[in-house]
Amino acid sequence: MMNNSFFSKFGPKEPKFFDFLKQVSETLLETSGLLMEALESTTSEDRKEYFHRIKEKERLGDTLSHKIFEKLSTSFITPFDREDIHLLADNLDDVIDRINSCAKRIAIYNPKKNNPYEKALGEIVRKDAECIDAAMAELTSVRNNASKLKGHCITLHDLENEGDDVYETAIIHLFEEEKDGIELIKMKEILNELEKATDAAEQVGKALKTIIVKYA
Hints:
Blueprint: H1 4-10, H2 17-40, H3 44-74, H4 82-109, H5 116-138, H6 146-177, H7 181-215
Helix pairs in contact: 2-3, 2-4, 2-5, 3-4, 4-7, 5-6, 5-7, 6-7
């Protein structure tokens, strides 16, 4: 009887999807750190510089996502359903895109002052990124790590709810306290993009839930 070593040697090789996904989550984590710094910057030059640095990370995320989609279309073997890997990679990329969109608005609008609620939402996005990066590290063994992965999904959901609460409070205070209409619009746009980033992070959790249900 032939043993598995024959097929391991001569059978089709599975692309390292887990490695690609982990690289995307690491890019997201780095991007979230740059976002926190961008939210604390006060000059037009610094804000533009952070936007350019985040844009580079966004392009790297796009490149990695493209590699995943490319491998999905040509691979004989995949660790999960192709649709589930595609959705997870797409959702990861969406979070990076939202951070990039926020950094772009900070650079273009260049508000006169930083709204304190922006930093609070940015911190939630950073926690989202840490949670997602930890989840990607544990995805290689869904059955063994099912409990941890479920915990990450719950955390992402809770963080999204926290983001909603912070955003609503921020908008109330903004309309009560900001008298400059143009500055109000600038801050509202930035806050809105930050809130959308927390929404996008929760979608990663939902994609993970689908994988857990199927494979845990």
